[in-house]
Design goal:
- The chain is 41% helix and 18% strand.
- It is of the alpha/beta class and 330 residues long.
- The chain is elongated.
- The N and C termini lie far apart (77 Å).
- The structure holds adenosine-5'-diphosphate (ADP) and 6-O-phosphono-beta-D-fructofuranose.
- The site of adenosine-5'-diphosphate (ADP) has 17 residues, from helix 4.
Length: 330
């Protein structure tokens, strides 16, 4: 017979993302509404191993839905990648009467959840990352806010770039994934986009494009560079030397990970948080919640981790098409 879930834990792990608080709130309030107790585990798996575990009541998640970051804190924890660390984590769950855990994070955090599930602690993962790089879902908590933050910042850089007739390289987050760069490339009308998934290191082509677009009358040239490619400052120096056009680099950095979550991030995080609790309540374990093809869904973690995702060719092509200029020299 399935064990009855009386107490669940919730933790946030890996990089924080706007909307994580909305997810925590939904987990706590749904569980309490279902007669399940909740314990907040601070600082991800590290906090679990350190037994930084607190009771969470409905009032403890009041007034957090609009706040960026995560009230539980987050961390990366090497010890949890070891068999001993995982066994210790499962033993601590038992010590605190935790029957199931909701883990909000990315692929790495799901592997930790999978380990706990194998050790008898029911686990459900929620996709929390600004990078949008989780294959089993079309949406990840935090992406919408982050991409809007980056877009607004890029608009501002574009204004001054046009005024000074400069070329600007703007580096956005995404160590392994270019989704923020692709979306900003289209939403900001950038002339060039450099994505880790697509980069062929052909800087000469980039330089030719800058010279050509200046010849055709563009007063600015915006290049969105994903963090995974990086080196924006040295790239700017080389481009300025090769084109004779003043070139500046702006690295947007961690501002993209903070700030108040968008309506979309609050809404989706709330639904996913509630779904995670109901999955646990129904005896499910080792699953991740996602949003695919217009529906909230859930997958086995193993299956989810085997899925792959890459930048859509057509969308990338469109980003190129939309920066085209009339072939008439200024
Ligand atoms: P994300 O969850 O955003 O992908 P990380 O890859 O940094 O972020 O993973 C977050 C944490 O999840 C790690 O610090 C570690 O504690 C845990 N984790 C990652 N990989 C594994 C693994 N293979 N086994 C167990 N735990 C893992
Ligand atoms: O949250 C995702 C992400 O922002 C990546 O784009 C980035 O590479 C990484 O986190 C950096 O995080 P940190 O500097 O905290 O390790």
């Amino acid at each position: 017979m399935e064990k009855e879930i009386r107490t669940i834990g919730v933790l946030t792990s890996g990089g924080d993302a706007p909307g994580m608080n909305a997810a925590i709130r939904a987990v706590v309030r749904t569980a309490i509404a279902r007669g399940i107790k909740v314990k907040g585990i601070k600082k991800g798996y590290q906090g679990l191993l350190n037994e930084e575990i607190v009771d969470l009541e409905a009032k403890d998640v009041s007034d957090i839905i609009q706040r960026g970051g995560t009230i539980l804190g987050t961390a990366r924890c090497m010890e949890f990648k070891t068999k001993e660390g995982q066994q210790k984590g499962a033993d601590i769950c038992r010590k605190y009467g935790i029957d199931g855990i909701v883990v909000i994070g990315g692929d790495g955090s799901y592997r930790g959840a999978q380990a706990l599930s194998r050790l008898g602690i029911n686990t459900i993962g929620l996709p929390g990352t600004i990078d949008l790089d989780i294959a089993c879902t079309d949406y990840t908590i935090g992406f919408d806010t982050a991409v809007n933050t980056a877009m607004q910042a890029i608009d501002k850089v574009k204004d001054t770039s046009s005024s000074h007739e400069r070329c600007s390289i703007i580096e956005v987050m995404g160590r392994d994934a270019g989704y923020i760069a692709l979306w900003c490339g289209i939403a900001n009308g950038a002339e060039d986009i450099l994505l880790p998934e697509k980069y062929d290191y052909n800087e000469q082509e980039l330089i030719n494009n800058i010279i050509r677009s200046r010849r055709l009358g563009k007063t600015h040239h915006i290049i969105i560079n994903a963090e995974g490619i990086g080196h924006s400052v040295s790239m700017a120096r080389r481009i300025e030397a090769a084109t004779g056009i003043e070139t500046r680099a702006t690295i947007l950095g961690y501002m993209q990970r903070g700030g108040e979550p968008s309506a979309k991030d609050r809404y989706y995080a709330s639904i996913m948080g509630a779904n995670a609790v109901d999955l646990l309540r129904n005896g499910k374990t080792n699953r991740v919640v996602g949003y695919k093809d217009g529906k909230f869904v859930d997958f086995d973690i193993e299956e989810a981790l085997q899925m792959t995702k890459t930048v859509d060719e057509r969308e990338f092509e469109i980003s190129r098409l939309l920066s085209v200029m009339d072939e008439k020299e200024r």
